[in-house]
Amino acid sequence: MLIAVTGASGFVGRHVTALLARRGHHVRALVRRDGRGTAAEGLPADRTPGDLADPAALAALTRGADVVVHLVGIIVEAGAATFEGVHVDGTGRLLAAARDAGVRRFVHMSAVGARDEPQATRYHRTKWRAEQLVRGSGLSHAIFRPSIISGPENRPIRTLARLHRWSPLVPVFGDGRFPTQPVWIEDVALAFALAAERPALGGVFELGGPAALTYEEFVRAIGRAAGHPRLLVHVPLVVARAAAAALAIAWPLAPLTVDQLQMLVEGSATPANALESVFGVRALPFEEGLTRYLGGGRR
Q1: DSSP one-letter code for 297
Q2: What is the pTM of this model?
Q3: What are the structural domain ranges in the chain?
């Protein structure tokens, strides 16, 4: 099959693209013209220059494609790249191009917690609105809501590993009891590939690892895998929120925003986990995955 992929040079996209190619598919990737498209070099895919705001590029991307896999998303707004513009408007333009090109199937990346509620973050509200566009598109579709994805390119996990190695104390927000269910990147990539290949797999699917962990357990597991488990110190949420708000003013690329902290505290467990029950994927345990790229402190 010819499969068109957006976000192919990103964390999830690189793994999905490589797996699709290994499974014998012809992959066409949308790549940026602004220099960031160089991240797609080395991927087993044809390249279509452009972005989600470029109707001509989307038409070229989707022309003759059997399936579109849509992975573009942002976690922090920067300049013209807003949640509304990327998640909602970009998805709408891509769906229109897919329909015009006669694409049969659309596989979409959303997020655990996506919902249309006033107290939800704008990230989650725009992810929900994008889901609604996909549902109403008339295309055969699968929508994925993964929990925290663990893999070599996960920067927050890498940051926590460095803290365990170099700091005598590692912070944990609040009581640290909010739930996570980290899922291995290759397991996520396989679910996307199977959804692209099997039109009968339709609907919204949560993806999580084999076990739910509290955030404190999550941080401790990273310390063990890094080979330097440290003492954890609990930071009151009111202090963490104030620090995140101050960082946002002083540093636009701050490592943690107020919204990200809210989503972390809300939790990302997936009680309706479809990884094994629907896709037949035996999920890799979180700590086993960590040791593959943190290497017990060797890296």
Answers
A1: G
A2: 0.94
A3: 2-146, 156-177+212-268+284-297
